[in-house]
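Subgroup meeting minutes
Present: P.N., E.W., G.H.
Scribe: E.W.

1. P.N. recapped why we're keeping a running log of single-chain structure predictions: easier to compare across weeks, and new members can see raw inputs and outputs side by side.
2. G.H. added today's entry (212 aa).
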Amino acid sequence: MSHFFKGLLAKWHLIILPALVKLGFWGAAAVALLDSSSIPVPMDAILSVWVWNNKSHFWIYCVMASLGSAVGGLVPYGIGRAGGELFLLKRVNRERFEQMRDKFERQEFLAVMIPSMLPPPTPWKVFVFSAGVFEMRVLPFMLAIFVGRMVRWLTLSLLVLELGPSAVDLVAHHALTAFLLVISLAGIGFGFWWKRNRGANSRAAEGTSLPE
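Output recorded in log:
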């Protein structure tokens, strides 16, 4: 049996994965879907190769990979929703379970988005599974994954464009620094959006005010 799994793994690395890589943008979605749903894949390393080889379209790879990851996440999410409550109740008491539910429901979007932003070895599927257990709505769930993955992979892509594919090792060995960088970039982006939106609302309010 071990020989069977070794042979399957060899075929995956030598045949299936290279074939998916050649699919370009659609390959990014397919590989990310597999990584999120079932088969662990070194997605950061693969994405860095795509980005390095097609620098002008790096953002398309990020979008497609994020979409694939959001769709693939429905598998552990569905497992959690179908029977995950019983799984958790075997490990924690009812009171603790309710506390976890209340905490997750108050911050469910961030509870999925932030782990989606982080590189391995973040236990991402645990948070996705919990989203299913606590019945997070599907569309916000997928959006949280998409946003988190986009922030992560856009940040990685910018590092790859600046430093080359070796940026993957930099992120892997400095996960905390990468996390702080991602949070900082996200905060700057949100601040810029909020300021711009506030200015637009102010101008709209001035334009609709009645003259004295």
